[in-house]
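=== Structure Prediction Worksheet ===
Name of assembly: unnamed complex
Input type: mixed (protein and possibly other molecules)
Chain count: two
Listed entries:
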Amino acid sequence: GAGVSQSPSNKVTEKGKDVELRCDPISGHTALYWYRQRLGQGLEFLIYFQGNSAPDKSGLPSDRFSAERTGESVSTLTIQRTQQEDSAVYLCASHRGQGLFSPLHFGNGTRLTVT
Amino acid sequence: AQRVTQPEKLLSVFKGAPVELKCNYSYSGSPELFWYVQYSRQRLQLLLRHISRESIKGFTADLNKGETSFHLKKPFAQEEDSAMYYCALRARDDKIIFGKGTRLHILP
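=== Predicted Assembly ===
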């Protein structure tokens, strides 16, 4: 596709439910990142995938958060037993890969609201 | 630990006045530093990177390793510069972390 695509664009869920957010990176981009942006806050690093290497999960805030990526394509971020503090915009970004410079290309984000 | 600090949450500047958005970083090594910008209703996008030492839309940023700073500057602000600006650091392992961002508001 022309850019990084995220779905859904908006998600409202009840506290305690699980949600799954999807990111389609730009074709050929081996590096993929997830960030969280709470209202009035900056970009909080969550997780980073690079090719077939083990992902850097150091930013995941709790074990309720997990992410997967199949090869160098789609990634899903799953939040289990959602809490109100999980409400935020979740941004996905990709770039060409380690050792190469290419700018991060961001999706439009998924706005998650936990009621 | 890697850290990017943008001390100002909001900066209001009159049109035509100089702009300086502050960014300080903490990193043991030689980082790669960037400024990203998000205009209203648009996606986050790269504005400039320190390695290229270029001027984009009149903005420049110089890496000062002694002060561990990478401040973004423009001599004369324009109304279209109003946006959210994020300073970012790319570490050796390719992890990219961002500051909390500064909202730049250009007053007419």
